């Protein structure tokens, strides 16, 4: 379980970092999304990887056998904020594309 | 005593300023600054916590900046103010550092505790740094050498400001601090050397410079510097008697210098100039002012029967007594006498040039005369104080001085006697020598001074101001530019590369230093289905990275795939709340980017220039960085996951969620109850983002190559035009008919589902976030099904109202807790029976969740609709463009 999850996090980080270093705005937005997945999964995994445990309080279950709620709460807000930043970045991308006519991150592709 | 000084002189200055300020000046601004400054000054002398003291200290710097630059049309005022702010600001920062060090040494930021712990401080290894920083703060504020240069430049301020800030209060703050801190800091050799050297140099140089000033206020400014030097020197001696003398002199100096500044202001006011080469013989025009100024400057010179004489005598007495056997000590009596002589000379000069001699010629204002009585009143009062203190010191100021000295020195306050006649002793001889020598100096230099340029000979060329400005230009302009040229870049890619690289190194270093060893990978016990899912997920992620450049749509689809697999992972790992949110966000993000893709045309692979070697190298570097980051993350997350989870705060939440928050879904309880304030901030951020998106899109103009109709629509319209039985737009409307009917039918179902998610949120997976996202999806589907126009004809969504209502509900729920005497966002809960629904929790957290829900709906819909509306707006833009081409 853990090994798969960590490899997945690693691969998504790799793709995300590679993409945010690319010169096209669309690549950066996709890269940020991938990076966000990786980071969310990572934060989530800090609470320990547990399968088949009740996520809500059930009478008669010891608290130790429950899923850790703190990383979940953190990640839940992170997902929503991630959505907000993606939306904002998308609009900035479009506005920059409209103003400069280029989808390079600097607004122009020549390296001057 | 200091509070009395500040308030008393403040009152007099306010009365004086009432008559001084001309009608064009904005009086409310002046008085508000002045009173604010007075408040800050009070704060300094009364605060019992050193951090608070430091804050008030900075406040006085800021207000003095505003006051000096009060006549902001004059460049001298602006420069002087900037210089004062820079010097005292840096000093204030040093003071803060010093006080933090002291607080760290003592373990408390209470002034009393620090003062008690003098021995601990002096023995500590951080004593010298702390001392140096505190001294930097105090010396800059009190314009001590080598920071004395800002005070003369600050004379561009209105005279009431000079009288108040630069005689009685602001510059006194520095020496006040020295006096206040002396129980904690003084008594060491370093203290004596640093403070004593600064004080003595300032004392002598200030007096010397003052003789050669041609500007009345310049003379007074340098004389102030010199007197502050005197006080500093006294404090450096470290003996209790010297401290008493210092406090006494602070009081005396404030009285006579404030009155002199005011007198200078009257002269300026009535004659229009402060240049001593032009002024002369004013006594016949303004005898009262002249008399008052004479008495005050006699006090400044230290003539017997006036208060200046008394404290100067005490100073001389202390100077004679040798406290430590060093060079500084031995020269102190001579320095003191010489400075005394200088001060006699400049006092004489002030009076003689201005009030005696022939009638003035060529004054800017003709016929100078006495000012209104109330303008003179403050001076009269202060001068009377000088006299009274000078003649009957023990009765007049004895109690006040006693209180102040006790405040500083505590029980160690020595016996001292305040009287005019101490018998014929050495200090008296020194006074007489100083008086005679000063008169001689003045007589000798009289003719030279009448014509000479501004500034003292020899030192004229070494101007602190020049040096200061050079440094300022050097640091804030040249170095900054150099740094910007060398290490700055306006390109995003290098910036991001550095950010990622720094992050990587910052992550690696602590692991490296603490001897981190990657754990061996264990492949046994892997769930095959899970592995298969992630195999697909990894392929999708790689595909996304590979295709994002040219095949945007394909990349988006794959990205969505990765998102879904993340979502499945959340389900798998017992986090249904996350899975729901992730799924909904995934859908919305995809739709959003699809809407955005409309305005991003296809990229053409062929058009790109061939890849150069440099570009290849750059790519290789990025790839290497990405690989390092990826591998690093793998190791770290594996290590984190396989380590036993420490018993952290999770248990607390799990145990208290039901008993305190009234909910079984701990994640939701954390969000809306335990950490409600964070959530409140977060929904505010969401709202801000939505508004920003909305604002950005209002003026959005798409790039020219996306202005045309999309390819698909063109094909559909062509098809319609070719058939006689169809009109344009029919196909576009109909080809999504079946899905759109389903979507329309599903509308109420989805709304119901959203309500369900919301209501069960406290106990079961769900909650405000997911319900809000679901509801906005319901709206979004209607837009997709029927098109923007169709949807808006039928439902009126007012996203801004949703957002406002949501934020207000959340805030009011939080504030409601205040009504019952609880902190912000404390929640209350109980279970209620609802008909049909049954027993359900009704915590106030549910109301808060309602706010979250409403705001999420509003923000999401606002973002979507703003983007969707671009397709309608473009028709208008096209029409405008067509009209323009027709005109040309």
Automatic annotation (TrEMBL), chain A:
What InterPro entries does UniProt report for this protein, alphabetically?
A: CPA3_antiporter_subunitC, NUOK/Mnh_C1-like
> Which cell locations does it reside in?
Cell membrane
Specify the protein's topology with respect to the membrane.
Multi-pass membrane protein
Q: Which UniProt keywords apply?
A: Cell membrane, Membrane, Transmembrane, Transmembrane helix
Q: Where is the chain membrane-spanning?
A: 6-21, 28-49, 73-95
* Primary location recorded for the protein, binned into one broad class: membrane
Q: Which GO terms describe its cellular component?
A: plasma membrane
NCBIfam families registered for this protein in UniProt: PRK09094.1
Q: Which family does it belong to?
A: Belongs to the CPA3 antiporters (TC 2.A.63) subunit C family.
Protein name (database record): Multicomponent K+:H+ antiporter subunit C
| The species this protein was found in | Rhizobium soli
């Amino acid at each position: 379980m853990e090994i798969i999850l960590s490899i997945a996090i690693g691969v998504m980080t790799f793709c995300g970092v590679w993409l945010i270093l690319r010169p096209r705005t669309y690549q950066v937005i996709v890269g940020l999304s991938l990076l966000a997945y990786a980071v969310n999964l990572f934060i989530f995994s800090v609470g320990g990887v547990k399968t088949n445990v009740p996520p809500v309080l059930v009478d008669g279950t010891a608290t130790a056998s429950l899923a850790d709620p703190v990383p979940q709460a953190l990640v839940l807000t992170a997902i929503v904020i991630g959505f907000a930043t993606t939306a904002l970045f998308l609009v900035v991308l479009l506005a920059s594309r409209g103003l400069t006519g280029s989808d390079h991150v600097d607004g122009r592709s020549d390296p001057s | 005593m200091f509070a009395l000084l500040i308030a008393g002189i403040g009152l007099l200055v306010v009365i004086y300023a009432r008559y001084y300020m001309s009608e064009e000046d904005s009086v409310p601004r002046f008085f508000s600054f002045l009173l604010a400054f007075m408040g800050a000054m009070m704060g300094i002398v009364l605060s019992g916590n050193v951090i608070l003291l430091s804050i008030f200290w900075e406040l006085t710097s800021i207000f003095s900046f505003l006051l000096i630059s009060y006549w902001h049309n004059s460049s001298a005022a602006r420069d002087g103010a900037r210089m004062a702010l820079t010097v005292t600001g840096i000093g204030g920062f040093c003071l803060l550092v010093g006080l933090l060090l002291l607080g760290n040494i003592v373990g408390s930021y209470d002034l009393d505790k620090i003062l008690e712990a003098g021995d601990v401080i002096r023995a500590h290894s951080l004593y010298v740094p702390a001392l140096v920083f505190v001294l930097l703060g105090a010396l800059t504020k009190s314009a001590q050498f080598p920071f004395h240069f800002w005070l003369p430049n600050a004379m561009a301020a209105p005279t009431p400001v000079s009288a108040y800030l630069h005689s009685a209060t602001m510059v006194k703050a520095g020496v006040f601090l020295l006096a206040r801190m002396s129980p904690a800091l003084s008594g060491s050799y370093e203290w004596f050397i640093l403070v004593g050297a600064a004080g003595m140099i300032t004392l002598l140089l200030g007096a010397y410079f003052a003789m050669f000033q041609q500007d009345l206020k310049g003379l007074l400014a340098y004389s102030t510097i010199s007197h502050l030097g005197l006080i500093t020197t006294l404090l450096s001696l470290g003996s209790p008697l010297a401290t008493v003398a210092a406090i006494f002199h602070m009081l005396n100096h404030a009285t006579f210098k404030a009155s002199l500044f005011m007198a200078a202001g009257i002269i300026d006011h009535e004659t229009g100039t402060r240049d001593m080469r032009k002024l002369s013989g004013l006594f016949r025009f303004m005898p009262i002012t002249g008399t008052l100024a004479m008495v005050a400057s006699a006090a400044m010179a230290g003539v017997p029967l006036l208060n200046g004489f008394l404290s100067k005598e005490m100073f001389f007495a202390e100077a004679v007594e040798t406290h430590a056997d060093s060079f500084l000590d031995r020269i102190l009596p001579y320095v003191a006498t010489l400075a005394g002589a200088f001060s006699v000379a400049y006092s004489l000069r002030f009076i003689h040039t201005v009030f005696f001699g022939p009638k003035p010629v060529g004054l800017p204002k003709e016929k100078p005369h006495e000012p209104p009585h109330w303008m003179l009143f403050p001076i009269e009062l202060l001068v009377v104080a000088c006299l009274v203190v000078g003649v009957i010191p023990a009765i007049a100021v004895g109690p006040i001085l006693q209180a102040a000295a006790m405040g500083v020195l505590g029980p160690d306050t020595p016996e001292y006697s305040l009287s005019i006649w101490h018998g014929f002793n050495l200090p008296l001889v020194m006074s007489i020598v100083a008086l005679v020598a000063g008169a001689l100096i003045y007589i000798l230099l009289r003719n030279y001074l009448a014509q000479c340029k501004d500034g003292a000979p020899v030192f004229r060329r070494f101007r602190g101001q020049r040096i200061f400005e050079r440094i300022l230009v050097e640091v804030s302009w040249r170095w900054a530019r150099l740094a910007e040229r060398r290490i700055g870049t306006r390109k995003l890619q290098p910036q991001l590369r550095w950010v990622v690289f720094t992050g990587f190194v910052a992550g690696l270093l602590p692991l490296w230093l603490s001897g981190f060893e990657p754990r061996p990978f264990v492949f046994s016990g892997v769930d095959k289905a899970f592995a298969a899912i992630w195999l697909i997920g990894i392929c999708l992620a790689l595909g996304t990275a590979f295709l994002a450049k040219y095949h945007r749509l394909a990349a988006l689809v794959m990205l969505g795939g990765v998102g879904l697999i993340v979502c499945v992972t959340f389900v798998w790992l017992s986090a249904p709340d996350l899975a729901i949110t992730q799924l909904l966000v995934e859908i919305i993000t995809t739709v959003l980017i699809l809407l955005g893709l409309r305005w991003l045309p296809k990229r053409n692979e062929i058009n790109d220039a061939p890849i150069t070697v440099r570009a290849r190298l750059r790519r290789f570097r990025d790839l290497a960085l990405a690989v390092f980051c990826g591998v690093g993350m793998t190791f770290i997350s594996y290590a984190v996951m396989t380590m036993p989870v420490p018993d952290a705060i999770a248990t607390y939440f799990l145990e208290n969620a039901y008993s305190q928050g009234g909910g079984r879904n701990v994640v939701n309880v954390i969000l809306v109850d335990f950490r409600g304030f964070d959530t409140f901030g977060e929904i505010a951020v969401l709202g801000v983002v939505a508004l920003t998106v909305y604002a950005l899109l209002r003026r959005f103009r798409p790039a020219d190559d996306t202005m045309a109709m999309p390819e698909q629509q063109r094909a559909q319209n062509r098809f319609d035009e070719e058939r006689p039985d169809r009109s344009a737009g029919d196909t576009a409307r109909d080809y999504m008919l079946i899905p759109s009917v389903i979507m329309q039918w599903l509308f109420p179902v989805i709304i119901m589902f959203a309500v369900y998610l919301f209501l069960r949120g406290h106990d079961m997976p769900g909650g405000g976030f997911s319900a809000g996202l679901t509801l906005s999806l319901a709206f979004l589907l209607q837009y997709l099904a029927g098109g923007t126009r169709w949807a808006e004809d039928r439902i009126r969504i007012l996203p801004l109202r949703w957002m406002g209502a949501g934020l207000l509900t959340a805030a009011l729920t939080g504030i409601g807790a205040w009504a019952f005497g609880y902190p912000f966002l404390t929640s209350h809960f109980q279970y209620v029976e609802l008909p049909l629904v049954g027993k359900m929790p009704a915590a106030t957290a549910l109301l808060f969740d309602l706010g979250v829900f409403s705001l999420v709906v509003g923000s999401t819909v606002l973002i979507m609709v703003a983007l969707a509306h671009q397709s309608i707006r473009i028709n208008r833009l096209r029409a405008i463009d067509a009209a323009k081409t027709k005109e040309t």
